[in-house]
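Let's sit down with a protein and look at its sequence and fold side by side. Please make up or recall a protein chain and show it to me in full. Label the sequence line and the structure token line clearly, so we can match residues to local backbone shapes. Go ahead whenever you are ready, and we will take it from there.
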Amino acid sequence: QVQLVESGGGLVQPGGSLRLSCAVSGSIFSIYYMRWYHQAPGKQRELVASIASGMTYYVDSVKGRFTISRDNAKNTAYLQMSTLKPEDTAVYYCNAGIQPTSTQTIKDYWGQGTQVTVSS
């Protein structure tokens, strides 16, 4: 059973920083990609950043402010968020493409989400 657990969310003032973590546990043969999405109230879930095979992607609105990274030894991904703005307020979800065993295909897994609120 694969689980993704996010942590690190909270309330921060505009201009502040937060670091989100996504720890993967359970049966893991290989992790192919890890992604962060966010979903603001009344809006669709949006891809914020992804990392796969050492390559990264960022949505334009966070370029230069957010950094995605991954610790393969810990099966953990991070999202370092700096210069936060009120419009970054959302629930942030971790998503990963994982092959649980050598005989299984890659499956898509999601965490439960962590709330980030940027407000003075």
Summary: The radius of gyration is 14 Å. The longest strand covers residues 30-39. The chain has a mean pLDDT of 97. DSSP finds no helices and eleven strands in the chain.
